[in-house]
User: Fold this.
Amino acid sequence: MQVEYPKSSWTDRFLLLDLLEGLKTTFKELFKPKVTIRYPEERMEPADRFRGMFRFSYDRCIACKLCAVACPIDIIYIDVHDEMRDVDGKQKKMKVLDRYDIDVKRCMFCALCEEACPTKPKSIWLTSKTYELATYDRNDLYFNMQELEYWDDKPRYTGLPPEEGEEPRAIEGQKLIEG
Amino acid sequence: MFDVHEMEVNFGPQHPSTHGVLRVLLKVDGERIIEAKPIIGYLHRGTEKLFEHMAYPQCIPHTDRMDYVASATNNLGFVEAVEKLMGVTAQIPKRAQLMRVMLSELQRISSHLLWLATHAIDIGAMTPFFYCFREREEVLDLFESYCGARLTLNCMRIGGMPDDLPPGWLEDLEKFCAKFDAAVDEYESLLTNNRIWKRRTVGIGVLSPEEAIDWGITGPPLRGSGVEWDLRRAQPYECYPDIEFDIPIGKNGDTYDRYLVRMEEMRQSNRILKQCMPMIRATNPGEIKAKISRVVRPPEGEVYHSIESPKGELGYYIISDGKSQNAYRCHVRPPSFVNLQALPAMARGHLVSDLVALIGTIDIVLGEVDR
Amino acid sequence: MNPWLRYLVFPLVKFLIAFVIVQLIVMAMTWIERRMLGFIQARLGPNRVGPYGLLQAIADPVKLLLKEDILPSSAEKVAYFLGPMLPLLPAFVVFCLIPFGPPPTFIAARVNVALLLILALTSTGVYGIILGGWASNNKYSLMGGLRSAAQMVSYEVPFGLSIIGVLMLCGSLDLVKIVEYQERNVWNVLPQLVACFIFFVAMNAENNRTPFDLPEAESELVAGFHTEYSGMKFAFFMLSEYSMMLVNSCLMVSLYFGGWTLGGVVGSAHHQIGLTTAVLQSWGLLGGIIGTVIFTVKVMIFMVVYIWFRATFPRFRFDQLMDLGWKWLIPLALGNIAVTGILVLAGAEWLLSVFGAVVLIATIALVVRGPRAAPRQVAHASRVSEV
Assistant:
C-alpha cells in the first residue's frame, strides 16, 4: 500500500497553514493535564507482577537448588547438608538449608528463578514492588538468608546517607500513584 | 591523501545524536561530506559467546538486551528459532500465538515512538519527543502489568508464554488502541505537513530499490525505497496469515518516505491489535504452553529463522549438537548492523547537519549493532 | 529648567529605571521560557526551587556567578574577554531610544531618527559573536561563530527593508510619531501584514532562535560559539540574547502593533476612542503608567510567541536558512516596498489595510477550522507477499 503524501493547496502554501497547524497543536497542549509525577512526594505504584526485589521464605523452601541452576548469571549461592530428623516418629533424611545468598548487584531481575521454584506458593519471588535499591556501599547488595526474608522491615533510604550510628529514615507522607 | 580543502572530523562516540556509542569518521570539505565511515564496537558485550555457555531458556533474558528498545521481538525471534529447531512450531496453542503477536505489535509501536521522538529532536523539533514518550509510557505500563518489566521484558518462553494475561489487560489495551490513532494524528500535525520538516527530510539520503536490496537492507528503509517486502507477509510466522493489515511502501527512498512508512506502520500495528482482541477472547484462557519438556534439548541440526522486528529482519542462526543444553553456536543477524552499511552511501554529498537526520532515519540501536 | 537636569540627569534616571526593569524581565524570561516549554511539552517546568519554581530565575544567575571562570590556555585573551561584552552594549543602549509610554516622560531620549539609530546599534551585535567564536581557538566554535555571524548579517537586510513600508506610511523615523500615526489610523499590522511577517521572521533569525538556531544546536556542534564559555561570560551571552529579544519585541510592538495605545481612530482624526496618547497624557502620570503597562503586556505576548515557536518547529539547515533570507525574504520585502510606494503615491493606503484584514481573517478562519484531510479510509488487505 502506497503511503499517502500530503497534498497542499495554494492556501496552505501562501498562508503558511501547515506551520500554523503545528502552532495550534502546541497551543492546545498548554491546557491539557501534565503527566509529571513529582518524585519523591508522589510515587508510581508498580503493577502486581512487577519484578522487584526478592523475597524468600525459609519455611517453604525445600532446598532443591532448581533456582540456582536456572539463573543465567549464577548469582544464587546455596549450601545444603543432609540431616536425619525426627518426623512423625520416624527418622527421615532431610535437606537443611545452610546458606542462601543472592548477589543482587549483578541480578537482572529476569524471574527465571521464580519460575523454576517448584513449591506452591513459591519460596523465592520477586513481586515486592520495590525498585529503590540504591545504596552507598556495594556490599549492602549481597543479601543472605535472613535479610532476604525480613527485608521488608528495613526502612527505605531517603537519599541522604545516615549519620554515624543513625538509622536510615523512611519517607514520610509519600503519595502512591497507581501505575 | 588529503586534498587541501578536506578536514577530518570525528563525530565522536559521545554525541547527543548518535543514538548510542556510534563513531562516524567524516571527511568533510567545508560542510559537504566526502566520506563517512562508521566505527562500531563500543558496546560489544560478547552476547553470542555467552549464548554458548547458557541453556536455551537462560538465553532469553540476554536476547532482550541486544535491541533494548524492542525486546519482545528479540525474544520472539530466539524462541521461534529454537522451536523450529525442535520441530514444535505447529504445537504452539493459538492463544499463545495471539499473545505473541500482540506483544510484538505493541513493541513495534513502542519502538517506532522512540524512533520518532529521537529523530524529531535531532532535527530540532523538541515537542514530539515528549508527546511520544507520554504514549510510550502507556505501552510500557501494559508490558509491566503483563510480564513485570518495562524494557527488558523476558516475556516469551520456548513452547509458549510464561503467564496468562492478567485480568483487565485487554480492557486497558482497548483503551490504549482507541486513543492511539488520535495521538499519531497529533504527531503528524506537527511534522508531516510542516515545510521546515519537509525541507530537512525530502531528498536526503535517497536509496534506490536496487541499491537497498544490494546492501541487504530490510525493514522500513527497504520499504521506504519502494520494495514491498515484509517478513510478516513473505514468510509468515505465528498467526499473521489470519490478520488483515497493509504494508506501507514509499516511492522515492528518501528520509521523508521512511518517516511516512513508519508512521503508517504504527497505525497498522494499532489495526492488528484491534483485530487480535476479539480473536484472543475466543480462545480458552490457560492454554499458553505447548507440551514440551522443561529441559530443552533440541536435536542435532542447524536453523536460521528470521522475523520482522521494528528495525528490519532479525535473524537467529542456531547450531545445536544434539547432546548439550547449550547451543553450539548462536549467531544473531541484527537489522541495524546491516542497515548501517548504507550510511556511507547515503551520506556522500550531503551536509554535516544531514548526517544527524540520516543516522536517525536508519533507526539504529547500538546494542544490536555491537551485541 | 536647568539644562543639566533636563538633558543629562533625567534621561540618565529614566534609562536606569528602564534598564533595571528590563533586566528583571530578562531574568523572569528564563523562568517563563522553561516553565512554558514544559507546559507545552506535557510536563511541568521547574517547580522545586520556590513556589512554582519562581526562585529558579534567581538560582540560575547565582549559579552562573559562582562558577569557575575558565580561560582556555590557547585562547586569545583580549578577544576572549571582550567577546561576551560586546553584544550587551547595543542591547542596553537601545533601551534609551524606545518609547515605553506616552511622551515626554516615558522615553529616555527622544531622537527624531530613532529608528535608524536603533537599526545601526543592533547591527553591531555581530561583533561579539565573531570574536567569541574565534577567540575560543576551537574549530567547532569558529564554525558556529561564523555561521551565526553570516546568519545575522544576512537577516539584517530584510529587517531593514521591511520597515521601509512603515516609514512610507508614517512619514517619520521617530518612533513616537509612528505610534501616533497608528492611533490616528489603524495598527500597522493590517496595511503592512507581509512586512510584519518578514520583520518577525528576521527578528527570529537575528536572535538565533528556533527555527534558526543552528549555531546553537546541541545536536550538531555541541554549543556553537559559546562552547568554551562558562560562568558569567556565558551568562552575558544569554543575557544579550534575551535583551535583544526584548528590544526586537519592543520594536515590533511600536512599529506594527500600536505601542502604548489601545484603540484609536480608524479614518477620522476627530473621533477618539480608546486609550490614545492624548487621553493618556491628560491623565498625567497615571496615564503614563497605564500606557507603559499596555506596552509591556504587548511585548510579553511577543516574547511568549518566541517561546511558542521554539517549542513547535524543527530547525532549518544552514544553507536553507540563507536561502530563505536571500532568495525569499528580500524579494518579498522589495515587492512590499514597491506596492506600498505606489499605493501611497496614489493616495489609496486603505487598499493595503483591506488586503491585510482580508488575509488575516481568512488565515484565522482556516486555522480554526482545521486541516481538510479526508478521513483515513481503512485500506483492504494486501495479500501480495512474494517479491
Remarks:
- The longest strand of chain B covers residues 301-309.
- Chain B has a mean pLDDT of 89.
